[in-house]
Amino acid sequence: MRALVQRVSEAAVRIDGDVVGEIGPGLLVLVCAMQGDTEANADKLAAKIARLRIFSDEAGKMNRALLDTGGAALVVSQFTLAADTSRGNRPGFSAAAAPEEGARLYEYFAERLRSEGIAVAQGRFGADMKVSLVNDGPVTIWMEL
Hints:
With about 140 residues, this protein is of the alpha/beta class. It has helices spanning about 40-50, 65-70, 100-115; strands at about 1-15, 20-25, 25-30, 55, 60-65, 70-75, 120, 130-145. It has a single domain (about 1-90, about 95-145), classed as D-tyrosyl-tRNA(Tyr) deacylase (D-tyrosyl-trna(Tyr) Deacylase, Chain: A, 3-Layer(bba) Sandwich), CATH 3.50.80. It contains three helices and eight strands; from the N terminus they run βββαββαβαββ. The longest helix is centred in the last third of the chain and has 17 residues, at about 100-115.
């Protein structure tokens, strides 16, 4: 699975103008299931993100994890993280999991984050979403497990 993780002060997802998920301080997690990914990949990614030390401690060092801060995660499906830009100018997305499997692993990943003790808000798989965020830092981390 691939994820783009952004430390945020706040983030929200809107569909047709309606807020479907929003958080205060925490992480915006854009996630994509790739062909061949399994629940084990989602398990590892959820555990890693819950413990990723990218929040400041009392000394100002990035030494605290989402679990330490009590922050939330906004999980948004984003198949475009599978983009292959190696040929031509139009990205290819054939490395992404099939939509049914992508949706299943997206939901599974969000549940795994919840089971780690993280409050999770979500977008809607396959929907045309408008995502707004205030990137804190900015801190943006690319992950692939």
